[in-house]
Amino acid sequence: MSMSHGQTRAMESLLVLLSLGVLVQLAGCSPPPDPVICTHGTSNCTITNTYGSFTDRTICRAAKVTYPGTEQELVAAVAAVVSTKQKVKVATKHSHSIPKLAYPGGDEGTLISTARLNRTVCIDVAKRLMTVESGMLLRDLIEAAAAAGLSLPHSPYWYGLTIGGMLATGAHGSSLWGKGGAVHEYVVGLRIVTPAPASQGFAVVRELGSDHPDLDAVKVSLGVLGVISQVTLTMQPLFKRSVTMVQRDDSDMAEKVAAWGHLHEFGDMTWLPYQGKVIYRQDDRVDVSTPGNGLNDLLLFHASPTRRLIDARVAEERLQENGTDTARCAAAEQQAAAFEQRSYGFTNDGVSFTRYPVVGYQHRIQASGTCLSSPEDGLLTSCAWDPRIQGSFYYNSGFSVAASKARAFVIDMQRLRDRNPDMFCAALDSKVGVVMRYVKASSAYLGKKEDSVDFDIIFYRSHTNGMPRVHADVVDEIEQMALRKYGGLPHWGKNRNFAFDGAIAKYPKAHEFLKVKNRYDPDGLFSNEWTDQVLGINGTPNVIKKSCAIEGLCVCSSDLHCAPEQGYLCKPGKVYKEARVCSFITDY
Question: pTM to 2 decimals?
Answer without folding.
Answer: 0.95
